[in-house]
Amino acid sequence: MAGLELDGSNPDVSLLYDINGLAKAAPTWFDRVMEFVGEYGIMFGLVLVGLWCWWSMRKRGTA
Predict the structure, then answer these.
(1) Which parts of the chain have pLDDT scores under 70?
(2) In 3-state terms, the chain is what percent helix, strand and coil (to 5)?
(3) Coil, strand, or helix at residue 21?
């Protein structure tokens, strides 16, 4: 794995190539999972936070 190089005009090009190499070598199922998380992960997280807020306020009852 490449380290962070601080000399030159593009300091992390070798790190980018290493990460791209890992992505090319990843199994197909992992690629599909990451595609799904990238597409729907933020919305799913927002729904979970909304449900958590609703549930915590519901447990408190009326003030």
Answers:
(1) 1-11, 62-63
(2) 75, 0, 25
(3) helix
